Amino acid sequence: MKLHQRFLGAIFLAGAASLACAAPPDPVSLMPSGPGLLSGGFTQAVDGLFVDTFSFTPAAVDGLASVTLSSLAGPVSFFSASLNGQDFSYFPELGQTDFMFQAQVTSSMPLSLTVFGAVLDGDGNPLGSGSYSGAITVAVPEVHSYALMLAGLAGLALAGRRRRKA
Question: Of 138, 142, 141, nearest to 66 (Cα)?
Answer without folding.
Answer: 138
